[in-house]
Protein 1
Amino acid sequence: MGRSPCCEKEHTNKGAWTKEEDQRLMDYIRVHGEGCWRSLPKAAGLLRCGKSCRLRWINYLRPDLKRGNFTDEEDEIIIKLHSLLGNKWSLIAGRLPGRTDNEIKNYWNTHIKRKLISRGIDPHTHRPLNEKTTTATIKTTTSATTKATQLDFKNTPPQSLAEISLLKSQLDFKYNNNFHSSQYSIFNPKKTETPSFEENNCTSSSMTTDEQQQQQQQKRESHQDQDVNLDLTIGLALTQTSSANSAESRLRQPVSSCQLFGSVLTRPVCLCWQLDGERRELCRNCQNQNQSSKNNHSNNGL
DNA sequence: AATCTAAGCAACCGCAAGTTT
DNA sequence: TAAACTTGCGGTTGCTTAGAT
């Protein structure tokens, strides 16, 4: 299949962006929104290719970018997500609001690699440098108990959607009958800039005060444990656009605190694997949810 | 003060996946 | 159904700057 060049190279600027160009791009996006990158440069009066505009916006101009150094907590999150996902920078960035994939990638290459090496850890395998075995293992923990679980994907972290799916199904199998669904929460940072569970209006309206207190306690406990819990696909929000409906793009979306702090959830997390936006197969949680809502309806005489 | 070197980071490039025609 | 097109990702490059010599 042939492909046309993304832009006419002889008519485009390259290299560092000027303040004027930045301003033009920001002004244009402020008025028209993101998207249509190919036609944007012409419409905005920029002598840049669409790709370049997109990159500049995403990595530098976006208003929601978090500036400044990475915190130690962010470091640890990146390390743990990298151990799970490998060089899936966009997925990792999706879990760190305000950080871009490029920023994380650069930070990994310039800081974290060295940090891991200085700890005697191989940054590729996340195993001790002097260790020869290539089988990757993942340590998962819960707030109540610490369990080391050997997952059986080998050699490298999952590289494709299919592999992530496989890993998720392994998790399903290993945990679904043993733990509350909240254990799928991906990480329990000690603190986070993500809005709190309550701020995000995720509190179940049907929750009693006791239940809320219990959840608060669980939340406190979970914050004391900053180990990463495995949650590769949890809480995938249904989105409108077809492209956003792809499983991987949904993976990339920032997770809300509802998804992050699974331990404070009372509502089971949706684990459906909806590849085309249609709910073809319901996960256990959704089946239970449907069942209980049916029951509620019938109990309410509906 | 001049030069060299390494680190940090913005930006580019090629490719693949997804979408549209 | 296939070609054309768009978007986004990950690897890489190259410029800038700070520190060392």
Note: Residues 3, 14-17, 49, 51-52, 55-56, 59-60, 102-103, 106-107, 109-111, 242-243, 246, 248-249 of chain A lie near DNA strand B (CB under 10 Å from a C1').
Protein 2
Amino acid sequence: MAKRQDKRAEVIDLLAVHFLDTGLSDTGLRRLAEVAGTSDRMLLYYFENKEELVAAVLTHIASGLSASLTDMFGNRPLPPSTLLETLWAAAKSEAFKPHLRLWLDLAANANRGDPLLISIAQQISAGWIDWMANLLDVPAAEKNATAALLLATVDGQLVLFPGEIARGEAAIQQLISLFKHWSQAVSVC
Amino acid sequence: MAKRQDKRAEVIDLLAVHFLDTGLSDTGLRRLAEVAGTSDRMLLYYFENKEELVAAVLTHIASGLSASLTDMFGNRPLPPSTLLETLWAAAKSEAFKPHLRLWLDLAANANRGDPLLISIAQQISAGWIDWMANLLDVPAAEKNATAALLLATVDGQLVLFPGEIARGEAAIQQLISLFKHWSQAVSVC
DNA sequence: TAAATATTGTAGCGCCTGCTACAAGTCTAA
DNA sequence: TTAGACTTGTAGCAGGCGCTACAATATTTA
């Protein structure tokens, strides 16, 4: 009688897509039930309450993302300018946009003190820092700071609005050129 | 009979404080009425509807912020590393934290397509870019890109959570040292 | 003073929210 | 086959939402 668990997993899959599409605002139980092809009554049978449902879907999305990041970038160490370039290209792509918007949504809600969302968001962001730090071809002492800078810069672009893409582009190119200056300075002087 | 306008202005002042304290989530009409010392009925007498109320409060907050930024930084041109240092110190201060959290809230909601919030947020962010660009002591061609990078970096720190301040600190220091490298390189080589 | 206008209270609409009580159906194990 | 657990539908609760109809009061104007 593991039907309950099977259905639960299926619901999580379907709702992950919906969350990525529409964020954390359109999350009434009746609406989610419709999206998942079931009833609100059943959602509360599969999950203890709405909070547990949301947490399950978000962690599912997070683990999926970190898997696909590893797939995409591999393990070869990269200089910061290259990593940033690749990361920015990914961030601009349609494939990743939903993840970034959801991440912004999550951050905004977590910033208002919801402890559950805080812990989920912390977990996700720590994962990203670790992943980037390992990938960076810089002195060990600077790995974490550089990773933090890259993440903060890309995150900062999330606070862009339609018609402001040029602004983000300029910021990223500026940082890329700073990184190149820096590595030249190290090798030349 | 300008009592209506007077009350309207008073309500805006009171609600600005409340928005800065609690963000854009706790905005039921009955709750706002309580905070403003009036009734929901009267809020809809002073304002056409809730949307107009929120817009009025947000633009009031925005203009207050830009005034205090000008007060604080003056007009003297600053190198990017200094501006970033000062900006970061301000961003960490308790006085500015409410503004930054509200800004994140606004960005997250605007990103979901609300046209009213989008235009308010665009207006605010354009104001910041202009203000920073004018203040930066860098070649004219690089003003906008550098301002965008600074804003993006500070904005990126908004996506931090309790216990992660160290990460933000590291990112900012990293960028400051990149800027210093860059200006040394320009003057030495 | 009387008429017109501005301000405010009371009460409630229809719709949404997360959640639950209860009963009926379905399946599995003895 | 029957008892028990598992799964699901129906209906509804209490409370919130933005908003409004209507009437009463207060204030200004003629």
Note: Chain B has a mean pLDDT of 88.
